[in-house]
Amino acid sequence: MAVRPVDIVFPKTWEELVRMPELRTAKVLYRATGGYRVVYRLAPGVVLKHGGEFGDEILCMRVAQAAGLPVPSVIHHPGSLDIRVPWSFHPPSNVWYFCMEEVPGVPLNTVVDHLSDDKLSALASQLRNFLNLLSKVEHKGTIGSVDGGAFRTLMAPPYSQPDHPFQKDTSRLPTDDEIRFTHGDLVPKNIMVDADGERITGIIDWGNSGFYPSYWEYCRMHHSSTPGWEKILRMVFPEPRRQAEIDAVRAILYTFSINL
Questions:
Q1: Which intervals hold domain Aminoglycoside phosphotransferase (predicted)?
Q2: Is the pLDDT of residue 259 over 50?
């Protein structure tokens, strides 16, 4: 039986949230390096994500869902999506956690190197369709944010957020690329597939989403590399590999994390 929001006791304070591991019904599904960002299974079919400010991520999920992508529905969140709060570590302020449906299946990274070429081809076809759907989302006029607000990235900690996304050398990147709605981390760990490994059941972790030049998604997808994923990428992007752009975006992300 599906769990209704009324059946779940949602945390009302930070203290209640951090005591959740003591609950027998709560199971940790993911804990980021350093332990701050955590995803729990709060109840059967319901997960809770905390460790930041999630207003932008929820808005991105809604945009992607409206575009036709398989995105988990948000069940509950504190705060208001109409209030734009820069994300921070402590203390929680606005949308400091959210609950969503748990996507069925397994992460693609756990099976991608064991799938047949036919199954890889089927997944590549679905990804091409998803990218096409994302490309049709109307651009809001600002790079980075989904709602036209300030640029932000989870690649840099709150205290060193850049004012705009491309502060370093961009000479190896196109200057006239179309601005598109972008997942920003569309790699196997964020792609859920069914038990047979031939159907995508959901795309998760929209925390790095927003409007970016079209090369951004391409390059970010190439930052993960295993034999099976490389086969998928060659089918999704059959043109010659744009290594100079991939390296340039990797360098930008590197400066986000250490040089700001």
A1: 37-223
A2: no
